[in-house]
Amino acid sequence: MAKAAVMTGVDAPLEIRTDVEVESPRAGEVKIRMAASGVCHSDLSMQNGTMMAATPIVLGHEGAGVIEEVGEGVTELAPGDHVVISWVPQCGECFFCKRGQPQLCEVANMALMSGGLLDGTTRFTSQGGPLYQMAASGTFSEVTIVPAIGAVKIPSDLDMKVAALIGCGVLTGTGAALNTASIRKGDVVAVVGCGGVGLNVIQGARIAGAGEIIAIDMNEIKLQMAKEFGATATVNASQGDPVSQVMSMTEQRGADVAFEVIGLQQTIDQTITMVRRGGQAILVGVPKMDAMVNLPAFFGMVLAEKTIKGCWYGSSDVRRDVPKLVDLYKKGELKLDELISRTISIEQVNEAFDAMKTGEVARSVIAY
Ligand code: APR
Ligand code: ZN
Ligand code: ZN
Q: Looking at the chain, which terminus has fewer C-beta neighbours within 10 angstroms, N or C?
């Protein structure tokens, strides 16, 4: 039996259950003894109803652990391997994977919507019924089962808390800058929202060679962190309109590339507006389902020649990007330890949600 944090309904605190039965992995699946899981804003977005979820569900999707058992036909992973969970399992064979867009993998898409693994079913039971698994993973559990294509091998000397963060916030944030956007050397980049994901956009932009990085947040602690991660200027959005502040920093032109990394209607509008003519707005944050992209088609888009691009999972190819990020971390070019504001136990997961709401942490990380 495993201990897990379970969402039973919208806005209800997660329940810590100790009776969770975890099946054996089926064909093409692996059982993982979790070592660490980050608490990401998307977990909170499920708990507060921003994103839809079938309940009861084991939340958590940003994790790392050790393979305990492999199902039939799994040849690339073996018990004892250290892995990062990729909550977008990438099949390598579908239309999108073959065209170099594995972040849009068809197999992953089906699983994400089902609340289960690739066949739509789940491997957890508790209190006599099944528990769903967030994003084909469910990392708020001491043990989980994921598709083998959703586990990426990492070196066994890599710190597991750091590895966990690579699985979502780091891949998404750095990928937004290095894969989704085209940042040119010397570009002025604006990043709206400097949480666990936004700080990674900032360091991705620095690695991509941005000349200026303007960090925008409402929280001074985050703006200070943003500077450590590479921001060259900061804008406190609680003290006046951030768009006009970015305009005045860019001779009224706007930023070459701007990223929205919160998921709010207001900041989506601001991000699109603060981009210069011919520039790119990259939408990373997951908004409520009724949020809209609003702009005048002619003046806002055609004449201004703006590009507005969605970003899913940092446009990452996990088998290419996870080793690349580990390498950058080992060379000291990627700050990952600094993202961990607090190490907590699974029992403290609701407190981690509270800390996220007040904006006082980049990441709380559960250590199992
Ligand atoms: N203007 C500027 N900054 C804001 C505003 C605002 N109106 N509202 C919130 N913020 C800041 C917060 O202060 C915080 O620093 O946005 C940041 C959000 O960070 P986190 O809560 O840590 O969220 P994170 O995990 O980084 O995720 C951001 O990406 O993957 C998605 O679902 C995720 O939509 C979420 C987004
Ligand atoms: Zn996440
Ligand atoms: Zn695929």
A: N
Ligand nearest the Cα of residue 262 is: 1
Task: Report the separation in Å between the CA atom of 48 and the middle of ligand 1, taken as the mean of its atom positions.
Answer: 15
Identify the residue whose C-alpha is closest to ligand 1 atom 18: 195
Give backbone dihedrals phi and psi of 53, rounded to 5 degrees, phi first: -145, 140
pLDDT digits (tens, 9 = 90+) for 63-117: 999 999 999 999 999 999 999 999 999 999 999 999 999 999 999 988 888 999 9
What residues are in contact with ligand 1 under a 6 Å CB criterion? 40-42, 45, 169, 172, 192-198, 216-219, 222, 237, 261-264, 266-267, 284-286, 356, 359
pLDDT tens-digit series, residues 161-210: 999 999 999 999 999 999 999 999 999 999 999 999 999 999 999 999 99
- Residue to mutate, 37, 39, 41, ligand 1, most ligand atoms under 8 Å from C-beta: 41
pLDDT at 110: 86
Q: Are 196 and 217 in contact (CB under 8 A)?
A: no
Ligand number, closest to the Cα atom of 118? 3
The position carrying tokens 């601001």 is: 270
CA dist., res. 240 & res. 141, Å (int): 42
Please identify, by atom number, the ligand 1 atom nearest to the C-alpha of residue 41: 25
H/E segment holding residue 138:
none
Return the residue matching tokens 């005045």. Answer: 248
Q: Does residue 335 register a pLDDT over 90?
A: yes
DSSP codes, 259-328: EE-S--HHHHHHHHHTEEEEEEEEE-S---TT------IIIIIITTT-EEEE-SGGG--HHHHHHHHHHH
Q: Which residues contact 226 (CB under 8 A, 6 or more apart)?
A: 191, 194, 198, 199, 202, 215, 217, 234
How far from the centroid of its chain's Cα atoms is residue 326's Cα?
A: 16
Closest C-alpha to ligand 1, atom 29? 285
Kindly report the length of the chain. 368
Distance of CA 297 to the CA centre of its chain: 30
| pLDDT tens, position by position, 125-138 | 999 999 999 999 99
